[in-house]
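Reopening this one. Same input as before:
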Amino acid sequence: MKKAIEIRNLTFAYPDGEKALEDFSVDVFEGESLGIVGPNGAGKTTLLLHLNGVLNGGTGIRIFDVPLNKRNVREIRRRVGVVFQNPDDQLFMPTVFDDIAFGPVNLGLPGDEVRKRVRECLRSVGLDGYGNRHSHHLSTGEKKRVALATALALNPEILVFDEPTANLDPATKREFIDLLKSMDGKTLVVAGHDLELLKVVTQKVVVLNRGKKVAEGPTAEILQNEELLSGNRLI
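Same output, byte for byte:
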């Protein structure tokens, strides 16, 4: 199997000296789905922001065997789509169409291809006809779908989600989980506290605490280990 993500001995500290990741390593194979769990402050978001070069721990990350560095970061960002916890951090254009079109336009794609991608992405997230809507007028669940569509518009091979079901009501949460399950062929990395989501979407799970990997294994095995979950403030 081809490695989609390879991380070796990743360490990162913020300017104030706070160490967010320490000697972290993991492999994610093409088509695999990985869950990242841990208490608040464990380093989950910091880890995700390394996967497309928003943060840089200096070394140790390869995407489909391409090293993540300044020379390759543009190509890496096309191959790794990130969906933030708060969709308002991702949606900043006047309309839904403009938000989804932003990435393809910046790739230099022709107008017909941009419009085609926007239509296809809206359809894939269940928002046909939303192109002329204003993103900031949508519900949280709709915003999260548009945020996912903005990532899909670049046709990434890897999708990365930070707390994808946060602030969703139970019905909307179930619908969004079904949407994630429909991402056939994509390599997924999903970080959060929602063990129900991870149980049905991911194949393996890494437990993070204070920037260190505490455990890694098949999802069912990790989520049935009550001592492990309790010791890391997950139940």
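So the earlier flakiness isn't reproducible anymore. For the record, DSSP finds nine helices and ten strands in the chain.
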